[in-house]
Each structure stands twice: as C-alpha cells, then as structure tokens.
Amino acid sequence: MSAEATNPEAHPEARPELRRRGRTRLDLRRLGRAALLGPTSRDRLPDAIGHVAEAHRAHHPDADLSILRRAYLLAETSHRGQMRKSGEPYITHPLAVTLILAELGAETTTLTASLLHDTVEDTDVTLDQVRTEFGDEVCFIVDGVTKVEKIDYGAAAEPETFRKMLVATGNDVRVMSIKLADRLHNMRTLGVMRPEKQARIAKVTRDVLIPLAERLGVQALKTELEDLVFAILHPEEYESTRALIAAHAGERDPLPAIADSVRAVLRDAGIAAEVQVRPRHFVSVHRIARTRGELRGSDFGRILVLVGENADCYGVLGELHTCFTPVISEFKDFIATPKFNLYQSLHTAVATSEGYVAEVIVRTRQMHRVAEAGVVALGNPYATATPDTAATATADTAATATATATADAATDPDEERVDPTRPGWLSRLLDWQQSAPDPDTFWTVLRAELAQDREITVFRDDGSATGTISLPAGASCIDAAYAQHGEAAHGCIGARVNGRLTSLSSPLSDGDTVQLLLAQDASSGPAAEWLDHARTPAARIAISSWLESHPDRAMAPTSAARAPLSVVGARGGGANAVADLPGATVRLAGCCTPVPPDAVAGFLVRGGAVTVHRIHCAAVAQMRAVGRTSVAVHWRATADCRVTLLAESFGRPHLLADLTEAIAREGVEVVSATVEPPVEQRVRHTYTLQLPDAAGLPALMRAMRDVPGVYDVRRA
Asked: What is the pLDDT of residues 7-16, one digit of tens each?
C-alpha cells in the first residue's frame, strides 16, 4: 500500500480500498454476504478471507494460516445478523481492517486479533473464550482495543477508552496498529453518518489518531487519514486541491523524464536501484501550494530511489549531486539521524537543465518498508530472533534487536510486559497519564502532547551515571528535571548544560548534556513561573499539583517588585595599604578590592587621596590614559584586610542565612551585604568583608561556594 499515492477522483464517502498494482479491487460487501450464505470447507480457508491470506503470504510466505481460519469462523459466527449503518454485513469491517494490516505486512498474531477486535465489544464472545482459543497474546491485544462501557463512564467513555488503549499500547504496540486500521476503514465509510458526527469523528482523528500514526511511523495509514479528514473538515479546500490535481493530470508531467535520467545516471555508475515517481497525496499538495504559490509539474510528486544497502544511499546521493544541480537547502540526512518514529531516508532536491526542481528520496528497501508501515513492519516484538532474521538485521530496524532479551519477560505472567519498540514519547505519555486527575485533563493534555511533532534526546550527567532523556522539541531544563527526578524535581535550583551553568528556563537542544542541581532543603518547591517554561505534561501536572497544595507559594509576589536587600555591619579598621606620599588618605578601590599580597598600583585623585587598584584592574589603564599621577604603594605588615566578594546563586529559602553562617564560621566580619532581586531564579549577593588575615581569603571563597545553591564566588 502506497504511503503517498492517492486517487484524486475518490470521494471520502466511497473511498476505494488501497490496492497493490495488478490486484483486483475487493468488493467487501459481496465477500461478506458470500461468507454469510456460502458453505465453507473445513479443510481450507473461507473464500471471504482469501485476499487477506494472499496479502499475508506476500510478506510471510511460511505463515500458518490455520489460526486465521479459526479466528474468521468465530468472528463471522459471532457477528452473524449484525449490519453496519451502510447496510453491509458487519463481518466486512473486521475483514477490511485485517486486509489493511495484511497489506502493511503485519504478522499472524496481529491479523488474528484484528479479525476478533470487535467480538468482545459487540457480541457475546468473552475474553476468556478468546484466551482459551487463541492464547494470551491475542487476548491482550483484543482487550486493549475493546472500548470501555459507556454506561459506566458516560461522557468520559471516549477519553478513558483512549487512556486504556494507550496503556495497552505501552505494553504491545500492535494494539494501536489495529486501532489505526480500524479508524481508517471507519473513515472510508463515514459518508453514511450525519454531517455533525462525521465532523466530530474527523476532529478526534485529526487531533489524536493521525499524530499517533505519525509517531508510530505508519505513514501509509497516516497520509490517507489526513486526506479523509481534510475532505470532511475543509471541503472547499479539498475540492480546490482535487481540481488542481485533476488539471495537472491533463498536462505534461516532467517527473517521469527526470526519473529516466536518474535511472541512466545510476546505471552508468553501476548502482543497482529502483526508481519510482511518487504522487503527493492531497494534504501534501495543499501544503505545497500554500508555501510555493503557483505549482509547477514537478511539485505534484517526488522521485523515490530504492537501493539494497545503506552505503548505496550515499552513493546515489553523490551521483545525483554530481550530475544534477543540487538544492543544498533541501538536503536532510535521516539515516545518520533517524526521526523518533523510526523513519530513515536521505532527502534532497535537484534542478534539471529545463529548470525543473525535483525532490528525491533515497532509502533502502527495508527503510522503505519501515517508512510505510512503521511499527507494523517490526512484527512481533516478543518473538525470539532466528539465525536468519539476526543475519539480515540492519541499522534501520535496530529497535527489534532487543526483542530476544525481553521475550522471556513478556511471557512471564508475573512480569510487566515491556515492549522493546516502545519509543520515548510513549514512555513519557504513560508516566504522566497516571497523574492526570480527571478524564478532561487527560484528554486536553493528550492532544497538546501529540501536537508536539518533533523530539530531542539529551544526555543526563548526575555524577554517578550517564543516560538519555527523550523530550519534545522546545523542552527546557525544567522538563528534563521532572523527566529524571519526578516529584524530587520540585527542589531543582539550577542546571549545567554542556558544562555551563544556566537557568532552569533555558531550552534544550538535541544532544545537550544536562546536569541538574537539587536543593538540600526539603521545603523547596517550584515557582509559578516554571509553568511558563514547562513543555511536557508530566512537568506541568506536577508543578500545578504542588502549587495547588501550597497556595501561599503560588500567590507570592514576583521577585521583580522587590528592592535590593542591604545589610550593613560595623565598620572595621582602615585600609592596610600605605602610599609613599606623606599625609595622603589611602582608599582601596571598590572595583577590584585589592588585598595582600595582590600587586597594586596607586593614583592621586581629587582631594589629594590615593586610590589603590590591583595592577590588572581595567581602571589602571584608564588612570594612566587620563594622566593621573602614579603613587607607589605597599602593604602594611599587619595581615588584616577588607575585600568585596560577589556570590552568584540559584534562589531558594534561607540562602542568605546559610551564606552569612558560612562567612561567620571562617571568622570573617561582614561590613555590608546587598542581595539583588532574583532574575530567572538566579540571585547575586555582594559582600564587603573584613578578614583578620588575607591568607584566609581562598578558604573563605571555598566555604561560600560549598553552600547549596551557590555556583560562583569571585572578587568584585
């Protein structure tokens, strides 16, 4: 089934089944009635699922079809007498859903569960019967797809059904594969519904099912769902796009000629490749038209090049960029950096001598299978790998390599089923859904989460271990904190990103290394402003819950309204620098606060005073530039001194008290202290201190840096 080819003449109310080249279009109504009326031999498959068997054998030639026969007979018997709103026998629906999955290459267990996916929900068949007849795997998948009872949940039935389905998908991605195929067939036959119900179903499909299909990599289902939703929710734009495609069909298409040129180039280079022209689907044409305005012939499709090995992909790319003019801005390498939904390909665009620009996609055949079918192409994640499959494993299906390691856990009834194909976004979703307080919150946050169409991976470094965290694009250090530490992230006071200190609001980029700093104070909590920078549902739900339980903190005035806090203590002795100018008043410069044994320079200023600077202070060059008189200075024999220190810290309760206590423990007197208002959770403290011995300054600065939350202490 093509992920992009779309019949422009098909109307959503009468959408034809996607078909392989040369295969006769199926009449499911005729097949369904034949299944109800015609006798079936006990020794062969029923005629009604012959097309399913044919499609299945195309991908799995050695598959045992006997279980499909038994599943079909149970489904046909249990649904007998039931009719769809279109007037077709109900059995045509599970048949169509199963055929969609068979075309995608789903394995036998998925097809068996697909045939039975509505039996428990709509007939007298029970889960125990399914388990007895077909085993735990099929039973688990059928239960995952089965809706919750509306009589028990009322208006919350739909979000609770999706919650149940997503939890089941976290344990077995085949659950969502069946749901997507089920929704596709329902959308194809939606024309019999009332317009308002069509719109409601289309909106849920747009907001939830299409993003899930994208994230699971099932492009073949996603693109057709997009077109069907487009036709229902935007009928005028759909019709104009359909007319645009139909008008193009009567014009000369430059893409076949460009494809012939590509074939000739690759043939001369000795690269075995299959070159196809792939028409764009309706939504893709609509998006391109909005971006580029008037479309040219080469804009209605793309060229697909299929090769055998990863290295051949780059060989094709080199030949294309050598023999055509490449459009460098269009180049993307999704082989070296795959998308989070398993997608791998090289994307480029080349200009021909006639002035056409053609987009080209280069991938291996295995990449193509995964690009079309996504997780469906990965088969059974619990099946033990055979030597043949292990020998043919490639980088683009590396996610299946862990299947063997988890097979035992998957079959142990006392262990949680862990699907090795579970992506990071699904793990995050399963985590936060447990904290969603009610169905409405779950439903709203689910749609917002699925609207994030890109994902990044950051590396965590907590000093003892290094791992990865998957986050949506645009996530901040706050999101990383809650993803790593859960509710303990309430006490996060800062982060180091790639070794540099930064605020929690800082956005993260793919590949960043993050070290999160937690406060030792158990009373620490998040600020209300964190919600402005949190992107993940887990972080937002946790922060909101904490603020609701601590209303006094949530309603606290913002720090920007506070004036700097100053603390002034008793003045100590005078400066311990002596100028070689009798009777002159000596002042230590506040810009660099020199202390023994710093190398210093003195300058005569207005009033006859001598100002002493450290020799490397920027003010020294300025004094000399304006012609200030230089005066020799030296330190007295006494060791006491006065110094000004700047302490940078992350804001937290009791920080000023802890810093003052650390200073006092070193036997240092605070002459004055100023605390500026926090800016992005960071606070600056300025201390003027009287030290009994200048030699103790390094130890004092170390003691101040050891105070939790303080990340830098330096001389003013």
From this structure: 334 433 333 3
Contacts of 695 (CB under 8 A, 6+ apart): 639
**384-393, pLDDT tens digit by residue?**
444 333 333 3
Q: 267: how many CB neighbours lie within 10 A of its CB?
A: 12
Structure tokens at 457: 């991976």
155's tokens:
């208006």
User: How far apart, in whole angstroms, are the C-alpha atoms of residue 116 and residue 135?
Assistant: 13
Phi/psi of residue 687, nearest 5 degrees: -115, 130
The three-point CA angle 72-77-79 to 5° equals 95
**CA–CA gap between residue 632 and residue 581 (Å, rounded):** 8
Quote helix, strand, coil % in the chain, to nearest 5: 50, 15, 35
DSSP string, 149-180: PHHHHGGGHHHHHHHHHHHHHHH-THHHHHHH
- Known catalytic residues are 121-122
Q: Are strands 513-518 and 710-715 parallel, antiparallel or unpaired?
A: unpaired
Query: Do you find a cis peptide bond into 677, omega within 30 degrees of 0?
Result: no
- Per DSSP, the three-state class of 638 is coil
Backbone phi and psi for residue 43, each to the nearest 5 degrees, phi listed first: -100, 0
Q: What is the pLDDT of the chain when averaged over all its residues?
A: 77
Distance, CA of 433 to chain centre: 16
Question: What single-letter DSSP state applies at residue 679?
Answer: B
Pairing outcome for strands 332-333 and 346-351? antiparallel
The pTM score is: 0.64
Element (H, E) at 646: strand 641-650
User: How far is it, in rounded angstroms, from Cα 140 to Cα 126?
Assistant: 12
Residue 367 and residue 345 in contact, taking contact as beta carbons nearer than 8 Å: yes
